[in-house]
Amino acid sequence: MDAFLKRLIDAPIERLPTDQALSAAATLIDLSHEGGIAAGLDRAEQVLTELGTRTLAAADEILVHYFQANLLAARRAIAQPDPWAWEDACLEAQILALRKAVNHDEFPKLDPVRQCQILTNLAGCLDTIGRFIEALEVWDRALRIIPTFAMALGNRGVGLSHYARSLYDSGHVGIFALEAHDSLARSAEEGAVIDSAAVEDADAYFTRHREEIAGYFPLDEIRSDFKPERGSLGRSRLERDYRSWCLANRLFLNPLNDVVQAPIAAHDVLTLPSISTSDPGMPVVIGFFNQLKQEYVSARYALFEGLQADKPHFSDRWVLQYNTFDYPSLSRATELLRLGYRAAYSLFDKIAYFINSYWSVGHKPTQVSFRSVWYEVKGKPPKPLLTQFSLLQNWPLRGLFWLSKDIFEEQARQALEPEARDLADLRNHLEHKYLQLHEGWAWRAEHAHKLELSSDGLRISLSRDDFAEKAMLVMKKARAALIYLSLAVEQEERRRGQKASPGLVGEMTLSTWEDRWKF
């Protein structure tokens, strides 16, 4: 063991002021990671635990979460877990710590470089578990803060190349490859922000990925043919506004919308692949996926309409209601927000029923939920993951599994999303109790973004603006879940095709349900 590291392990760090103790903990983690020294990580954990008992400034609270995540990353590097292990408690804790840092109200006030470091690490974790859609959005958030942040650019490029391998549309694959190559190239340009020595270590890795992409894809041809502005945003001004809003928020069921916010991506083209079945007739999952898509796009439009409303609707006229002196938000527009939230949240359990059927899980209908469909039914918690999932090397399906950990259930372990309980409580009150929304201009500052629960548990109070933010979060999770589901079925169909024995095969070609038939 390095002599300096040994002295640091033995030093009475807990006696130091907070800033010095944090710096010492960070050094312990870095040196222990480099040397594979578990004792150093144990000591760093003791320091961070002690710091957690102090009354900390907001920036220091965030740093404690960040360093806890770094410590967990170091433990994983030393342990070298199976990269295809579906369950990983250490990685789960790492993601939760990073999300707590990012979700802190004071995070935007942190030093920009530190913000980018935290976001880049979070995106890397999400990409590792197969949540590549959400990873890309987090990398892009870092790049909005520092557009030349090298680690975000390089890892984003690698993540895009991984995303491309899961796509079934060859045209989309080429566009993703081009975007991946360009992101990797920007990470090595003069002027790229180098935040640590780790960037220099990663540069060879990024260069290798960039050269592999350039050697496999005709990038000049793809760049020349790619016309992102090609396509229509609709006929009316309202439709164009709606599609522009969807593009800006990455809400189309179209992988291209994750790299392009232009007309070419303004269509919900996501479908299921060809389905092989030994049963006669139409596979029920095709109609089921149609319905999931329709519910999603209708929830999405309800959210849009509720957010865009700027005057009372005629249906709200002559509806007698009392003034409760707490600035209630009572309108058709508010109800559209509530409907959008409910419809989007309901998709998670419906996806679970899809999984239960398509992957022949065999759970009874009363035993199916998005959080539980992956596990054995019998036994005490924590219940084991079903082997039919744990043995699959299906990256999008694993992403869907990890997304299910964002959903709160009383009988499940801690959720991976810090807001999970709030999101579930909102859904419960929308469906069964009383969610009272208030006009944001009067309510939000005083009540600081928090859900307020009445003493009898009947009512939750929240500003309309904060509820809209949570509705958008649920909508984005629902979109990611549907894309992961489609790509997971594509990979499963490939696997089944490789295992199938030769024999007579009949084909049924499906036509599309025309827009003019929809009314």
Task: Jot down its keywords.
519 residues; mainly alpha; three-stranded mixed beta sheet
Layout of helices and strands, plus pairs?
Layout: H1 3-10, H2 18-35, H3 38-51, H4 58-79, H5 89-103, H6 112-128, H7 132-145, H8 150-165, H9 170-187, H10 197-216, H11 219-225, H12 237-248, H13 284-308, H14 332-358, H15 387-390, H16 395-404, H17 420-432, E1 434-438, H18 440-447, E2 452-453, E3 459-463, H19 464-499
Parallel strand pairs: 1-3
Antiparallel strand pairs: 2-3
Helix pairs in contact: 1-3, 2-3, 2-4, 3-4, 4-5, 5-6, 6-7, 6-8, 7-8, 8-9, 8-10, 9-10, 13-14, 13-19, 14-19, 16-19
Shape: globular
| Number of continuous helical runs | 19
Structural class: mainly alpha
Mean pLDDT: 92
C-alpha-based Rg, rounded? 25 Å
The stretches of 5 or more residues where confidence is low (pLDDT under 50) are none
User: What's the main sheet like?
Assistant: 3 strands, mixed
Query: Total strand count, please?
Result: 3
Q: How would you explain this protein's 3D organization?
A:
This protein starts with a helix and ends in a 20-residue tail after the last helix. 59% of the residues lie in helices and 2% in strands. The model has no long low-confidence stretch (mean pLDDT 92). The longest helix is centred in the last third of the chain and has 36 residues, at 464-499. Strand 2 (452-453) and strand 3 form a beta hairpin. Helix 2 packs antiparallel against helix 3 and helix 3 packs antiparallel against helix 4 (58-79). With 519 residues, the protein is mainly α.
